[in-house]
Amino acid sequence: MNRPLLIVEGLDVSQGQRRLLNGLDMELKAGECWALLGRNGAGKTTLLHTLAGIRPVEGGSIRLLDRDLHAWRPRERAQYLGLLTQDASQGFEETVLEAALVGRHPYIGRWSNESEEDVRIARQALHACGLAGFEQRAVQSLSGGEQRRLSLATLLTQNPQLLLLDEPLNHLDLQGQWSMLHQLRGLSDNGRGIVMSLHDPNLALRFCTHALLLDGMGGWRSGSVSEVITPAALQQAYGMAMRLIEDEQGRWVVPDTRMMQTGTKR
Amino acid sequence: MNRLRWRVFVLVLLALAAGGILVANVLFGSSGLVWPGAPQEPLAQAILLELRLPRVLAALAAGGLLGLAGALIQVLTRNLLADPYILGISGGAATGALLAILFGLPLWLQHLSSSLGALAALLLVIALAHGEGTWTRHRLLLTGVVLAAALGALITLLLALAPETALRGMLFWLMGDLASAPAPWFALIGLLVLALLALPWARDLNILTRGEVSALALGVAVPWLRWGIYFIAAAATALAVITAGSIGFVGLLAPHLARLLVGADHRLALPGALLLGASLVMLADLLARTLIAPQQLPAGALLALIGAPLFLVLLYRGDRR
């Protein structure tokens, strides 16, 4: 369980002329579930795309399973590393089952088609995401939340060791958010690694083991959730006064309404 | 998997229909029904082998090429309104061909001139639209559309300047004309080669329709794939236009009909678009030659007349499903 899936050393990330992240070091082991936090435009998506190997590495290094991320052959890498994109990306016209089967692409040779086994894996993933019985529906007919669950089902069909998720909770209602996070935490407890960008630090506190907080100006903090998600750190990253509430059910970090007038200014 | 079996069955039907239309094209023409076996007249033989067969093969090749190119261009631009002519190739080929007709050059020089025009337009679009990133597909579309508009204006000028004698030939070229199709074997072999090059990538095309980021994350070699699609589509369009002039609409219509009939999976939609493109052009040419024989109509115009209502009916039925 202690094998590092991902080792990031001295990673620089920028978007255009703007440096978003300076010298990020992080080590992600199997079984860890990381929350990626920060303001809009702080570089969460850019970092996830860099970790997924879609953007070139500007400075520093990323190693996936002890091999340089860009030394992998793309198809082989896609069997170990998967990305859930921020926007539901759909093809021209597909059924739910066809969309889920897309996740098998890295496993199927150029001259083969999906096998019965691939279909079985896809159906299982749909079932796990609460979409059993939806197989023949057109993707366009699903609600926003259902499409989000379908995206996760496609990722589960891809079956990677390391899951990168860009705002997986988009479009989900309260119950949907909690059940998806339960599901994701179950995956990491079973030995996968997860990095997901979230907007709610309290969900991160409850469901994640680790957190990476970006300030969008190059700075970052990483560590266990309780180390990273503190009122002081969030105040610095989001530019809002925060306070901590603690009771027997857990800890919450919430905006400090007494400081609201001055607190919302950055 | 019943649905899959049905779709494969539909594809087989499309192939049979294409074969049937091909045979009908050989048997019927402006000189009426000619039966191959019965009278061993040299005239009948000549009509079949030297007039009708090359012409129907040219129609098959041009239609197939445009159907294939249309399906590929729609994936490349992720735009269902795109057709092969947005690459500007047909405009380039038309300008070349019309210039040759205007100067009264012989037929082979007309073909050479339209080939050079197609190549020039292709290189121009590549040079202008070159770049990486998500911006490129919009730039490719816009570059092609603007170039096509400019070439369209040039073509209008050529038509305005042309003497009466050249005008008819020029108009027929623009509407799609199979009467003077050169060496159909060349286009047929081209169709076969390009289809065989494209088909192994059909599943990657499915993934590419979901966007570049998703495709990259699933291990698709997106930059290579995009260049590959671009060149196959461009070569197919150029070959089709040189063979049969700018037959409009089929490059847009055939891929859409294919998706309505066999689904959006390109493993079936690519061959489907190819077969439908070939069938539509052959059918249009058959009607063009026989409807008011011995006078011939422009095949391209008939194609749009058949295709548009067919498409609307299928679309309407598809929506109600």
CATH topology (fold) name of the largest domain in chain A: Rossmann fold
Helix and strand element order of chain A:
EEEHEEHEHHHEHEHEEHHEEH
CATH superfamily of chain B: ABC transporter involved in vitamin B12 uptake, BtuC
Uncertain spans of chain A, ≥5 residues at pLDDT below 50? Answer: none
3D structure, described in words:
The complex is a heterodimer of chains A (266) and B (321). The longest helix of chain A has 16 residues, at 174-189. Chain A contains ten helices and twelve strands. In chain A, 32% of the residues lie in helices and 27% in strands. Chain A folds into three domains: 1-80 and 160-223, 3-Layer(aba) Sandwich (Rossmann fold); 91-159, no CATH class; 230-266, no CATH class. In chain A, strand 11 and strand 12 form a beta hairpin. With 321 residues, chain B is mostly helical. Chain B has one domain (41-320): ABC transporter involved in vitamin B12 uptake, BtuC, CATH 1.10.3470. Chain B has 13 helices and no strands. In chain B, helix 4 packs antiparallel against helix 5 (135-161).
Helix-strand blueprint:
The complex is a heterodimer of chains A (266) and B (321).
Chain A: E1 4-15, E2 18-29, E3 33-38, H1 44-51, E4 59-64, E5 67-68, H2 74-77, E6 81-84, H3 96-101, H4 116-128, H5 144-158, E7 162-165, H6 174-189, E8 193-197, H7 201-207, E9 210-214, E10 220-224, H8 225-228, H9 231-238, E11 242-247, E12 250-255, H10 260-263
Chain B: H1 2-27, H2 42-77, H3 89-102, H4 107-129, H5 135-161, H6 164-175, H7 184-198, H8 202-208, H9 212-217, H10 222-244, H11 250-262, H12 266-290, H13 299-320
Helix pairs in contact in B: 1-2, 1-12, 2-7, 2-10, 2-11, 2-12, 3-4, 3-5, 3-6, 3-10, 4-5, 4-10, 7-10, 8-12, 11-12, 11-13, 12-13
